[in-house]
Structures are given as C-alpha cells and as structure tokens.
Amino acid sequence: MPKKIETLSELIAQLNATDREDHSKIISSIDIPKEEFTPYAFWKPSGYARNCIERTKDYELLLLCWNPGDKTPLHGHDGQDCWVYLVDGEMTEIRYRADADDNLTKIHQEELKGHRLTYMRDEMGYHLIKNHSQEKAITLHIYALPIEECEVYNEREEEFHNKEMKYDTVKQVKVEK
Predict the structure, then answer these.
(1) 102 domain-assigned
(2) Which helix (H) or strand (E) element contains residue 26?
(3) What are the backbone dihedrals phi and psi of residue 37, each rounded to the nearest 5 degrees, phi first?
(4) What is the count of structural domains for the chain?
(5) Of the candidates 31, 58, 33, which has an alpha carbon nearest to the alpha carbon of residue 146?
(6) Structural domain span for residue 167
C-alpha cells in the first residue's frame, strides 16, 4: 500500500508525477487534516462554494464548502472519474440510476463521516451530495480530467440539462461573476 498522503502539496506532487491510471492508488492514500485546506476554504452566504485549488490538463482539485442543508443537484461527471474526500463535517451521498426513459431510481444512500472517500463515474449512475447536519462541512473533489460541463437534473422540468461548471474562487482568489 502506498505511503499515506498527509499534505495538500504532497497530493499535488504525487498527481503531477504519475499517470492518470495511478491516480486512484494515490487518492486512496489521502489522510489530509482539515487545517491543510484552511487557506482555500471560502463559503458563500447561501449555497455551497466551489473553490479551485489546482487545475491541470490531467486533473482538478476542488474544495467545496457547505453551509448546513446545502446540496448539489443530481448530476453526472461528463465521463470523468470523481473522488470525494470528506475533509470535515457529515454529508450524505445518494446515487440514482436512470432507465432508457430517464426514469430515476434511487440505488444507494450513504452517510459520510470521518475522512471518508467515495468514488463516482457516469457508468455508475448519477449522484447528489448534501450536508445533512447543522454544521458547516468541507469536501475535496478530485476529477480526472477536469470537468467543463456536466448533466444536471432539473427537478421542476424532470429532465437533465448540460450545465457549465464555474468556480467561486481559484487559488484563493474570488472569481468575479
């Protein structure tokens, strides 16, 4: 088993030094304390914040900062691998599968605590993540390759739409909207 990765700079160095095929082994070795992420942890008054820590042609690292009750819409990942590392707090991940007529069926629900790591890919279905607690939470999302847009489920229209992905901050600098 690879050596534990205990700092953000170690994670970035390992990802930069290896091929995409090795990213899963590296990411499964993460044991990074929340203090490492403090410089990148920015919250919005409402809704979760998407903070870009690092983006290369091969991967991107996003730190999502969640207020109590925040959740993503049900979504896919544009064919990319997605790992979610729970940095702090308690979250819930719910997975769905769509049939040929886009009827959705819930297939899995998991409570995330501690430094839990989950993995998602479009072939596995769609998922949503929510902060079910009354406390703020932080998750690290690792995508190989970076995601430009993804399918997002519109509950009102009961169908998926492509949505361009945007950041709230990039390397600690607020993005002007």
Answers:
(1) yes
(2) helix 23-27
(3) -95, -10
(4) 1
(5) 58
(6) 41-174
